[in-house]
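Justification of computing resources. Each target in the renewal requires a structure prediction run like the one illustrated here; the chain below, 409 residues long, is used simply to show the kind of job we budget for.
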Amino acid sequence: MTVARLALLVVAVAGATLRPRRIPAFLAPVACVLIALLSGLASWHETSHALSPLLAPLAFLLTAIPLAVLLDRLGYFEQLAALFGNGRWLVPGLWLLGTGTVAVLNLDAAVVLLTPLYFRIASRHGLPARFVCFQPVVLALLASSFLPVSNLTNLIASARFGIGPLEWFEHLGAPAAVACTVGYLCYRGATRLAGDSGAPVSDDEESATSATARDGSVLAGGSVVVGLVLVGFLVGPSIGVRAWEVALAADLVLVASSKRLPLRSVPWETALVAAGLGVLATAAVQGVDLSSLLAGSGPLAMIRAAAVSAGGANVVNNLPALLVALPSVAGAGGRATCQLWPIVLGVNAGPGLLITGSLSTLLWVDSMRRLGAPVTAGVFCRMGLRVVIPAAVAALAVLVAFAPLLGCG
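Resulting structure tokens:
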């Protein structure tokens, strides 16, 4: 039974990433889930249990993309891009902006808001759009370990083990900083992998954007909406307001002001991919003891745990990979916390090879497609090999080196 479940998972991942005969990306994961349910390889109760922790992230996916589309159609990102001057510091400045946005807000919000902005900046300054737009997705992986708020995986782990922001930063701040630094050096050497600037947005969207970009009220109104959204992302969790509810409220405001309902921009297919892989991953590991791979102390154990977590995240998405891994971490406190850090670093910085590796990656791929500069799974994988993986390895080396100083040797 375990072999059959693993086989369905492999087929689902292959179908979502390779898309043979150009089938929709969601078709293989959904079909494999139905096969698992009908054949008894997974029960409805198990499926419901697997989907439960994914509902809020998927709701954010479904509401955040329309938010970015509505802002872009208003011309907000075009006007905001005009504020950025050209020069030798533009690209590194955008890298720093992306790093700070991911660290202080969260990776999904950064991808949604920065990808269209960076696309417009690249277009205005004659830079390769795909190359510039790789920054948000790369940093969504490399800069998402600084603080608990940087990533939903961090929030889940910190809540489970009672870890505060200072303790979190003490353990993963230096590895994340090294990851971002090494990542930038590798990124500057990978320009040719991004290809040309990509196809422009459609004529209808371009004309709508141009028509509104000259309206000075767009920048002011859009900034108010974005500012309130960012405040909502930061303050919302402490008062019981979730990120998707903040994004939905902003959607409703923008729909009311623009008189447009962007139903075609709702990424239903991407949500189905993430949900299907989450269900299949949970079913595949049932009865599999991961503790021997993820537990233990010392450098080799930490490297093994990070590698297994990163590999799992690439295949099934980082959130299901974390949820599957956490039960293998010993009881709360002390040594359990030490076992946690390489797992978190693995699921955060490691999934840079497959587009299914992170919800933020799926968000980014969908954003790029809607901007008219689609990125194939092969191009993303090559960028990951050149940029993300070396940076993740450097971060892991720092984590292992500093572990004895933090009582985790």
